Amino acid sequence: MGVFYNHFHSQLFVQPAYPTRSFAGETVIITGSNVGLGKEAARHIARLGASKLILAVRNVSAGEEAKKDIENTTQCGRSVIEVWQLDLASYESVKAFASRASSLQRIDVLLENAGIATAQWSMAEGHERTLTVNVISTFLLALLLLPKLKSTAKQFNTEPRLTVVSSEVHGWIKFPEWNDPNVFETLDNKEKAKASFGSRYPLSKLLEVLVVREIAPKLDGSGVILNYLNPGLCRTELGREGNFALKILYAIRFARTTEVGGRTLVASAAAGRESHGKWMTDGKVNDNMLAPFPRSNDGKKASEKIWSELAAIVENIQPGVTSNL
Ligand SMILES: NC(=O)c1ccc[n+]([C@@H]2O[C@H](COP(=O)([O-])OP(=O)(O)OC[C@H]3O[C@@H](n4cnc5c(N)ncnc54)[C@H](OP(=O)(O)O)[C@@H]3O)[C@@H](O)[C@H]2O)c1
């Protein structure tokens, strides 16, 4: 079945299950949790008894507002939620956050949710900002925190989850640039990228998919579960930087509420070994719902290529970080 059929079917007929699995005793980090899906996932996880819940946010005062709101709408104790600064547009901020988080006793869930869908071209850390925030820093943070996720697995005999919030829109675009000698260089070139910049957000979600598919097997046997997911179309703040396509989709009015969309994040954050390396949609493992390209032979080659370029980029930021895999 086509990707658009799957999209409309899920939006119109599927309601992801209300999360019920306990997070008691667990330490959970959620990036981009001051608003949108991250905040609603945080609310569910607070309700489900997490011992420590870290809202990793770019704007600390917005994070404090979210913390108050979640505390006032759940039974979670006043000492459960902490607000920590994290700006994915700055590698120094990512490194500082990771260094602070590495001193935690345990990390049971790293829910990589923060992301942007901007219509405006700008650079951050030498790369186009969507690539820096959605792709490079997202995986840099994952790699920096892998040692803590692995040690949590061993020390507490548990299976920590590293969850990447991607999107079904990864299948809505073409990606001819994957054949270019240096893909990131092409995508960072404003002149070359101008004509296709409208699809930069879905492209960033495709890059996430390709990278997860390449690195998940490297984590086999590590005790860490790496999964990735599609929340479906949800009414959030994602269109705020002028993403016209998203505004039209929201206007059609079949977008999920943030609460319902947040359930899909919680499903992946709570998922077991069966989800390792797998795509989750509507809160369930379902690799058949991945777009054809990542599953094709060319998609496999693209995964290898994107990962090798990304590995070089993150090694440049933090030498040795890829050996955490
Ligand atoms: N909404 C949908 O229909 C939909 C569908 C599929 C996938 N998704 C994915 O779901 C995730 C959450 O998006 P959302 O829809 O909830 O959007 P949202 O309401 O705009 O929330 C995005 C979050 O990411 C944070 N963020 C943005 N740039 C950041 C940076 N440089 N450093 C740290 N945090 C940053 C935002 O913080 P600020 O508030 O400070 O900007 C905000 O907390 C994204 O990965 C998105 O791609 C969404």
From TrEMBL:
<dbReference type="InterPro" id="IPR036291">
    <property type="entry name" value="NAD(P)-bd_dom_sf"/>
</dbReference>
<dbReference type="GO" id="GO:0016491">
    <property type="term" value="F:oxidoreductase activity"/>
</dbReference>
<keyword id="KW-0560">Oxidoreductase</keyword>
<dbReference type="InterPro" id="IPR002347">
    <property type="entry name" value="SDR_fam"/>
</dbReference>
<dbReference type="Pfam" id="PF00106">
    <property type="entry name" value="adh_short"/>
</dbReference>
<protein>
    <submittedName>
        <fullName>Uncharacterized protein</fullName>
    </submittedName>
</protein>
